[in-house]
């Protein structure tokens, strides 16, 4: 069983930055592929970014590529999502999720590929 806890959300103005953290209880979260997802009110859950075990590769949705960066800190069992140049459209509850299996190819973009989810952290970007 892997317990994930997100933190770092909040209210920020357009153009601002936030860093979200996803901390695993145990084992080391970076032994697994980890993704960040978000869900805005009235919308479906949306893939944001993913990182492969040990941070070898990173993947981003088109809407955040170039603005968001996913990274991991192996010693702290934490995966981060650095969000720059935030826009009102980025407003959502952000979730991290860990997959117990391979998420190569298109499977990394499917929520059903991830086995453990955190409770989410709210990000609100004001215009």
In short:
By secondary structure, the chain is mostly beta strands. 0% of the residues lie in helices and 45% in strands.
Give an overview of the whole structure.
It is a single chain. The protein has strands at 4-7, 10-13, 18-24, 34-39, 46-51, 58-60, 68-73, 78-83, 92-98, 116-117, 121-126. With 127 residues, it is mostly beta strands. The chain is globular and about 40 Å long. The mean pLDDT is 92.
Rounded to an integer in angstroms, the radius of gyration calculated over CA atoms is 13 Å
Net shape: globular
Number of strands: 11
* Pattern of helices and strands: EEEEEEEEEEE
Straight-line N-to-C gap: 40 Å
The largest β sheet comes out as: 7 strands, mixed
Question: Which key phrases capture this entry?
Answer:
seven-stranded mixed beta sheet, mainly beta, globular, 127 residues
Topology:
Layout: E1 4-7, E2 10-13, E3 18-24, E4 34-39, E5 46-51, E6 58-60, E7 68-73, E8 78-83, E9 92-98, E10 116-117, E11 121-126
Parallel strand pairs: 2-11
Antiparallel strand pairs: 1-3, 3-8, 4-5, 4-9, 5-6, 7-8, 9-10, 9-11
């Amino acid at each position: 069983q892997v317990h994930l806890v997100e933190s770092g959300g909040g209210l920020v103005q357009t153009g601002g930055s936030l860093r979200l953290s996803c901390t695993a209880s145990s084992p080391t979260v970076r032994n697994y592929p980890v993704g960040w997802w978000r869900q805005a009110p009235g919308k479906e859950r949306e893939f944001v970014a993913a990182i492969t075990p040990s941070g070898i590769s990173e993947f981003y949705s088109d809407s955040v590529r170039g603005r968001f960066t996913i990274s991991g800190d192996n010693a702290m069992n934490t995966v981060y999502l650095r969000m720059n140049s935030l826009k009102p459209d980025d407003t959502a509850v952000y979730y991290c999720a860990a997959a117990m299996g391979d998420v190569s190819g298109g499977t990394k973009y499917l929520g059903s590929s991830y086995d453990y989810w955190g409770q989410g952290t709210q990000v609100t970007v004001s215009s």
